[in-house]
Amino acid sequence: MKITHLTSVHTRYDVRIFLKECKSLYNNGYEVSLIVADGKGDENKEGIKIYDVGKPKNRVERIFKFTKKIYKKAKEVDSGIYHLHDPELIPVGLKLKKLNKKVIFDSHENVPEQLLSKPYLNKFILKFLSKIYTLYENYACKKLDAIIVANPSSIKKFLKINKNTVDVSNYPLLEEIMQINFDPNSKKSDICYIGGISKTRGIEQSIKSLKFLPDIKLNLAGNF
Fold this sequence. Notes:
By secondary structure, this protein is an alpha/beta fold. The protein has helices at 15-27, 59-77, 90-98, 111-115, 123-143, 155-159, 174-178, 203-208; strands at residues 2-6, 31-36, 43-45, 48-52, 81-84, 102-107, 146-149, 165-167, 190-194, 217-221. Strand 5, helix 3 (90-98) and strand 6 (102-107) form a beta-alpha-beta unit.
């Protein structure tokens, strides 16, 4: 069975997409490809065929021009299952459904709530966009074959839309944990945060919480 993952936003080696999903499928005997838009060219990486449609100059070009390129490439690859990773690719998924393909949407974030946190638009426009997206998401996801969410908090929402909804959380792989030299008898109390470090991801609340946690160290690792 051929499975193709599509992303116009994420990097080709994104941990969730490439390592946890594409590699897991490949290791279980599937033929897996990944379509990206980063301008780094085609590549065969650890058994995964990566197809690059080029790098957009800006967000507008990415949404209106490069989604079409991704759709064209997806048709060329001709897989049985397509796995979408960005909301802007949902229209591509609906087109692929018309070709009798199986289509899965992987909802990494709660997009309607995420829109409300954008700092570069006023609150009225943000609420309007959030509402419009919610209506479109409800309409489109009913037509897709399955929904995957990245955290348990989203599963109830999508189960109301599509009964084929499952949670694939971003937990560490077991082999990653086994490589860590960890002493279970250690009394050292540390908190580790790994990922994008920003206001929308709670960096301010994380730092302020330390005043309630004496003698605990906060370790941050990620883009700031």
